[in-house]
Amino acid sequence: MAIRFLPVPTETAAALWDGGTDSYGMRPERRISDGDGVPCRHCLEGVRAGEPYLVLAHRPFPELQPYAETGPIFLHAEPCAAFSGAGVPSILDSRDYIVRGYDADDRIVYGTGAVTPTEEIPAYAETLLARSEIAYVHIRSARNNCYQCKVERT
Questions:
Q1: Which top-rank group of organisms is this from (predicted)?
Q2: What whole-number distance in Å separates Cα of residue 109 and Cα of residue 2?
């Protein structure tokens, strides 16, 4: 099965770059990167030292519901190109991540969440997406549960 890694949608990022508000209705905070641990969720690359970035609340679900987790993410402060979807994004540079399946109603499919070594993420995502009840997969930080990206079938 072919899969693709999806960034925060360009429409979402563009609204924030244009001064829009985050999932809590707040304007993003603007910071300067020290070059360590600032993964942009649009290009799925690290924000380099000295570059400005935004910190904001993001809810990667279409509507509020009990499983719609909201948490902090980073974006380059200036527009960047969206990740192509091919291959494992460079921001996935920790030793492991939480990989979790969701159904078409945006609910967690119980029993799918697993702390997964980074090199095993593509295979585990494919295993989950081979199941008919799994619509998509989220990758989240294994330490802080921060949203990284979404994985779908191609």
A1: Bacteria
A2: 21
